[in-house]
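2024-03-11 09:14:02 INFO worker-7 job=invfold-0412 stage=load source=structure_tokens
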């Protein structure tokens, strides 16, 4: 998310805001990364007593991506997605003020997965923290990023 005057074609206050300035946030880049291995409901039905129809009718899920490579982790996938988002924006990692990682499956209890992403990206001056709120975590992370930008505490926040 960003408070980028060039991307919006409008004038904004300074980094820390000025009296009467209005700062707003916008999504300026995006990226994604998923594990290569796919497990379908039919695959699961061979392991446990279930069916594709039973799973779909209760969850809407037909397949899921599963990590099978021990070198593929929450942090490596988040870093891939973040690099793609930076590529879309054209921003260098050093422009980031904050990295927020919304995850229910952190790499470790400590350090935060966001810190691993921040380091892997090469954003040494960005703050970093994890937000754990299950499926709604991404929405909460966007709200946190928007608040930081609106308050003038950040210009560029990476949400992964």
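2024-03-11 09:14:09 INFO worker-7 stage=emit residues=160
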């Amino acid at each position: 998310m960003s408070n980028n005057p060039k991307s919006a074609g409008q004038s904004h206050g300074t980094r820390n805001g000025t009296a009467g300035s209005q700062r707003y946030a916008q999504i300026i880049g995006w990226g994604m990364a998923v594990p290569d291995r796919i497990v379908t409901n039919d695959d699961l039905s061979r392991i446990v007593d279930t069916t594709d129809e039973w799973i779909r009718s209760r969850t809407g899920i037909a397949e899921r991506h599963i990590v099978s490579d021990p070198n593929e982790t929450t942090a490596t996938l988040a870093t891939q997605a973040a690099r793609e988002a930076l590529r879309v924006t054209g921003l260098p990692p050093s422009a980031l003020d904050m990295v927020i990682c919304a995850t229910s499956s952190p790499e470790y209890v400590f350090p935060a997965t966001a810190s691993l992403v921040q380091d892997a990206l090469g954003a040494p001056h960005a703050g970093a923290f994890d937000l754990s709120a299950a499926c709604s975590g991404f929405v909460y992370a966007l709200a946190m990023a928007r608040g930081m930008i609106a308050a003038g505490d950040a210009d560029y926040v990476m949400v992964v």
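2024-03-11 09:14:09 INFO worker-7 stage=report msg="The longest helix spans residues 74-89."
2024-03-11 09:14:10 INFO worker-7 job finished
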